[in-house]
Write a structure and sequence with these properties.
This protein is mainly alpha-helical. The protein has helices spanning 6-17, 38-56, 108-122, 132-137, 142-150, 152-160, 220-231, 240-243, 248-258, 291-297, 300-308, 323-339, 345-354, 369-377, 386-401, 421-436, 441-455, 459-471, 479-486, 488-495, and strands at 23-30, 60-67, 128-131, 174-176, 186-192, 195-200, 205-209, 216-218, 238-239, 269-270, 273-275, 316-318. It starts with 5 loop residues before the first helix and ends with a helix.
């Protein structure tokens, strides 16, 4: 067990590097080129946990999330309606493309942005969202763009150190969106002060002052460090693709220092997450599992726990099979330890940062995920408290969409199997004992073995026969739990049909 929780360690390092800063800035962001998948959630939850760690240390924090919606459409995702019809928009800014959703009148990017923003609210993540289309169109970066253009040869020198082929002599660190066709199929003819002259493949020629018209977009490797400087960013995580030797973080650090005279933010890389047994996420290929999909099965606190309890540089899988039960049990066990004051300092922090609200003084009262599987399928949900009802919705959705067949059952109305003499005797004995008295689960469990010993039937044969009669399967949930949850009167009524 590490001495400090990873998010607290990062927060301490940020404060140590800039001890006198009045407000720290933590950043995250993505290009909304398609549906935002759960893999992208890792970046924002990593930032969120560091933000909370800083706030817990009494620091003022600005948490920003950039929508890079002024990026060009590079490829059309296969999972949008009529994808071929969107090929004509390739090269245009995402914010200028019509919405693929008939229900929404927003632009292309906003459809995906709103979906993700609404999902984040459910896990209590509420950053300040910044649309880069608005920033560029309002010419907010004009002064920094001029610095970039004036120092383009220095930038080329930095980038060429990590390239197999050097950038062309006429290379510019910017893209120009044509005023007529709105595409980036342009070529810069001349640049002087704040004025750029260009021509486009569509045949249009234009000249504009980028302090007044926002047709300029910095290329990614320059755009990222420029925004660090503009927003005064102190922390931002990034995926492995940005973290490799010669990657955009490595070049970004040099550009931030040498071009913008800004000390780059503290950075941690996060590893990819996968769907258990599935393919890697890809918005463009339509292989999508969204935050909404995960939130159908996992409570907000349990979802946050999954990420909080795993260091960012460790990859893991999101499970939807029977591992879901194990994850809920791990979370419940941590919660129990927390309220019994048996949790380590690390475990306490993981639990605290998993909460979407302030930690309650009293331990929440809720039924386990495993037990709810039985309760729901026996129709005994009427008297559940609020916390258990919330969890029951997750269990119901899991049973409907992902549960293995072994976990699904239905209480039988009739007995449709043949029993041998020993099995018949044992189940009749069970019926009589159920009639005579009430049992706790543990008492009933012990009673099964008393019946087996009395009648000389193997335990396995007894349980097998009971499951076949009650749910029509060879096995099922804990038998004592099943009987008492379904209601012993209902089970007695069924057992009375044994001939």
């Amino acid at each position: 067990m590490e001495k400090f929780f990873w998010a607290d360690a990062i927060a301490e390092k940020i404060i140590k590097e800039k001890p006198n800063k009045r407000q720290y800035v933590c950043a995250s962001g993505i290009t909304p080129s398609g549906t935002i998948h759960i893999g992208n959630f890792r970046e924002v939850i990593t930032t969120e946990l560091v933000v909370k760690a800083l706030k817990d240390k009494g620091k003022k924090v600005r948490f920003i999330y950039s929508w890079d919606d002024y990026d060009r459409l590079r490829r059309v995702p296969v999972n949008i309606p009529n994808p071929k019809s969107y090929e004509k928009y390739l090269g245009m800014p995402l914010s200028e493309i019509p919405s693929p959703s008939k229900k929404r009148k927003n632009n292309y990017a906003e459809v995906f942005e709103k979906q993700f923003e609404n999902s984040l609210k459910k896990v209590n993540i509420k950053p300040k969202f910044i649309k880069q289309s608005e920033m560029y169109k309002k010419c907010k970066y004009a002064k920094l763009i001029k610095i970039t253009l004036d120092k383009k040869e220095e930038i080329k020198e930095i980038l060429n150190k990590y390239r197999k082929e050097s950038l062309r002599k006429d290379w510019y660190p910017i893209e120009i969106y044509c005023e007529k066709c709105k595409k980036d199929t342009t070529n810069i003819l001349n640049y002087k002060e704040y004025e750029i002259e260009y021509e486009c493949k569509c045949g249009f020629k234009g000249k504009f002052d980028f302090r007044k018209k926002g047709f300029v977009k910095l290329k990614w490797r320059v755009d990222w460090p420029m925004r660090w400087s503009y927003e005064k960013v102190d922390f931002e995580p990034g995926g492995i693709d940005h973290s490799v030797y010669g990657g955009s973080y490595m070049t970004g650090k040099e550009i931030a220092k040498k071009i913008y005279n800004y000390e780059p933010p503290l950075y941690v890389f996060y590893d990819w997450i996968k769907i258990k047994g599935g393919k890697e996420f890809s918005s463009s290929k339509g292989n999508i599992l969204t935050l909404d999909d995960v939130e159908e099965i996992y409570e907000p606190e349990v979802l946050r726990y999954i990420f909080a309890s795993t260091r960012p540089n460790r990859g893991f899988q999101i499970s939807f099979d029977n591992d879901v039960i194990k994850i809920y049990e791990e979370y419940d066990a941590l919660e129990k330890k927390y309220y019994e004051n048996k949790a380590s300092s690390q475990e306490k922090r993981i639990y605290e940062l998993s909460q979407i609200k302030k930690v309650s003084k009293k331990k929440p009262s809720r039924i386990s995920f495993r037990h709810l599987i039985t309760i729901i399928q026996t129709g005994k949900t009427k008297n559940l408290n609020l916390e258990s009802k919330k969890r029951a919705k997750k269990v119901s959705k899991w049973l409907e969409k992902y549960a293995p067949e072994d976990f699904k059952f239905q209480i039988q109305e009739e007995i449709n199997i043949k029993l041998n003499e020993k099995e018949r005797e044992a189940l009749v004995e069970l019926k009589e004992r159920l009639k005579k008295r009430d049992f706790t689960e543990e008492q009933l469990f012990n009673e099964f073995y008393n019946i087996c010993n009395k009648l000389g039937i193997k335990n396995t044969e007894f349980f097998n026969a009971a499951y076949k009669v009650i749910i029509g399967k060879n096995k099922g949930p804990r038998l004592a739990t099943l009987i008492l949850t379904a209601g012993k009167d209902k089970i007695i009524k069924l057992l009375e049909k044994i001939k």
